[in-house]
Design brief:
Length: about 240
Amino acid sequence: MGHGRTCLSVLAVSLLVSGTGLRSSEAIAASPPEQFPPRLVALTTSHDLLATDSNAIVRFLETTRPAAVSTEEKARILSTLPLDGEVTDLSAPARRKIAVLTELLRATGYESVYEIKVIDVPQAAIGLHARAVILVSEAALTLLDADELQASLAHEIGHGYVWTERERAFQLGDHKRLKDLELVCDAIAIVTLHGLGLDVSRLMSGIEKTSRFNRERLGTANNEKDYPTLAERRAFARAMAVAIR
């Protein structure tokens, strides 16, 4: 197992979390077309999503799935990841948790799109790297239970939908937009987990665990201004959970 942190420690990672056990045979149930309004919502702001029928959101997610990077591009991206820092010697409990993440990718149709890599960095975090790789820190794998890891992954799947918009906001230094896009990804995670019959109330437990872990060990993050506060995420998660009932 490598313990180097090299550039792995500066790869963009996003925090989120929630869920329950998921059988690999489960998939999001499609709703009859007539349940959806003629015009589908775009993923604009968290406020807009709260005001949108959850069936319309599901339909939008199904019909506007982000295109996967090509096989060649994915191979190139994987080749750029430093070997020193990747964790391959996993314990049996860790392997079981990775298997649960793979089940969620399978259930949502992303198993062939994203490859999971476990890395040794100080943060407890999960992140989508280059639209091709799900990076799971060893600390997050230890800290979070399988349900919370699934929810965190659902949030990262959300990042695929807002990738271009987030890149634009990052380049512009638009902290307000970056914060809201995190809530949009929270909404995508909640809708996804709900569609799979998972417990969305676990969303915040994982966020709070990782936030507490990272703050106690590393202090205030340099990019904290790009993320909603815990209070903002709690309020939004509660409102979104009510909206999808």
